[in-house]
Design goal:
about 170 residues; single chain; mainly alpha
């Protein structure tokens, strides 16, 4: 019987050795398990959405952006119109100044002639020339004012049309 017991003890010891080697093999195999879980974990980079949800998101984005775009367009349009009016005003002012220069140049020889001409009529002619110059300058100022008022009127008409279009 001692022999049977010794065989059982030997068999048990060999089983324990096999179990120890299995545990160490399993331990070596699962020691890297947390890293493997992280590496093998699936990540969803893209999600598929139903088409109605996508359309709803697009419409909400459009509803949110449209007023801002309209506001920015109106600001840009107003600025362009302002610059256009300024350009027209500067052109009118330039034309007015050119007209004044031209009228001064055309009158200059007559002033020279009157200075060398008859001394008795010179004072009367000088007064008439001064009056004429004053009237011409007044006429040019009034023309410029009329042009400016016409431009303002056109601008107000455009603004009225725009406001009517938005309502």
């Amino acid at each position: 019987m001692a022999e049977h017991l010794q065989a059982s003890v030997g068999s048990l010891q060999s089983s324990l050795q096999i179990l120890d080697s299995s545990i160490s093999t399993l331990d070596a195999g699962i020691s890297d398990f947390p890293r493997l879980c992280k590496v093998l974990q699936t990540t969803r980079h893209f999600e598929l959405l139903p088409e109605p949800t996508l359309r709803e998101a697009q419409q909400s984005l459009l509803d949110e952006i449209t007023p801002s775009i309209a506001h920015l367009l109106s600001l840009a349009s107003n600025h362009v119109e302002k610059l256009s009016r300024r350009e027209q005003g500067l052109r009118a002012k330039c034309e007015l100044q050119e007209g004044r220069m031209y009228s001064n140049e055309s009158r200059q020889p007559s002033r020279l002639r009157s200075a060398y001409g008859d001394r008795q009529g010179a004072s009367g002619n000088a007064a008439k020339a001064a009056e004429l110059r004053r009237l011409v300058q007044k006429k040019e100022r009034l023309q410029y004012a009329v042009e400016r008022l016409e431009l303002q009127s056109k601008q107000r008409e455009r603004q009225l049309r725009k406001s009517m279009a938005f309502h």
